[in-house]
Amino acid sequence: MEPGTIDNLSILYQSSDFIVVNKHWDIRIDSKMWYETLTLQSQLKYRFPELADPDTYYGFRFCHQLDFSTSGALCVALNKAAAGSAYKCFKDRLVTKAYLALVRGHVSQSRMTIRYAIGKNTTEGMTHMMCIDGTEGERLPRPACAAQTTWAVLGGADPPPDLVAGCENPKPCQSELIVLEHGSYSGDPVTKVLLQPLTGRTHQLRVHCSAIGHPIVGDFTYSHKKDSSPYRMMLHAYYLRIPTGKELIEVCAPDPFVTTMDSNWVPHHVAHRLDETIQELKDKMMQKGEEEESQEAVLGGGGEEALSEAKSPETEEQRARCEQWLAEWALE
């Protein structure tokens, strides 16, 4: 519960090519604002000044992103070759991530698959948010001008369509939810869940939890600005697996949602044990890998190309991120 400082960076994994940190919940990865001096970037430079690369904008090659309020495992590549191998894993969807969260209310189903498509909210004042497909647009206030008067004179009951905002360019998204424990937080009913994003849309887990009526505890944005009392948003990147060609990166960032860490959280009933659930996830990945190897062997020389075509297409967001990586970190 202590705030982050420049010298309290927690390292989960380190090799000559990668560092995996346990990002603090109140620290941004990087910032262009002069007044935001405490970032993960500055923590890394303080801890590993000799590893900072002057050829990159941020000094370090962050392999993926976590929101400001989200804690947990975050991988950093230390050279171009490592960044390239990580990029390939993300591009080929070989990376596995699982998050822990406390959500409002008691989730009735022990497991569920959430499949709401997510797009950008274009409603004025909400453009920093995402929304699910089908979200009803809100009327934007029309400026007091001659056009408004003309519309009224013409008898228009509603403003023109371009004055209505809604969910822009929604993309298919899928998240898996497993209930770990039912309990309470500061006396209110909450559920501890394991979340696995099977796609990578911005704010995906936060939006999906809100969409099923169980917003994440402390998520001020997606609780319609109501959930402001907890000291943080209760979302944590717990498990990360990146099978690069040279090494397997597999880490768990310690669970912060335990009573010894936060006495406001009181579990009442265990539905699934965390260690068993993670092992189940690992077993599924192993089985999937074996099936793909078997399929590739059957397909022969064209197996890799066929398997690549069989995979779902990248989202525009994923493609843009990969292009950004290639521009700065591609192998020479």
From TrEMBL:
In the record, what terms sit under GO molecular function? pseudouridine synthase activity; RNA binding
Pfam families per record: PseudoU_synth_2
Where in the sequence does UniProt note compositional bias of the Basic and acidic residues kind? 311-321
Q: Where is the Pseudouridine synthase RsuA/RluA-like domain?
A: 18-211
Q: Which InterPro entries match?
A: PsdUridine_synth_cat_dom_sf, PsdUridine_synth_RsuA/RluA, RluA_PseudoU_synthase
Instruction: List the GO biological process terms.
Output: enzyme-directed rRNA pseudouridine synthesis
Fetch the Gene3D superfamilies from UniProt: Pseudouridine synthase
Residue span of region Disordered: 286-321
The family note in this entry says: Belongs to the pseudouridine synthase RluA family.
Q: Which PANTHER family is this protein grouped with? A: MITOCHONDRIAL RNA PSEUDOURIDINE SYNTHASE, RNA PSEUDOURIDYLATE SYNTHASE DOMAIN-CONTAINING PROTEIN 1
- Protein name listed in UniProt: Pseudouridine synthase RsuA/RluA-like domain-containing protein
What phylogenetic lineage does the species belong to? Answer: Eukaryota, Metazoa, Chordata, Craniata, Vertebrata
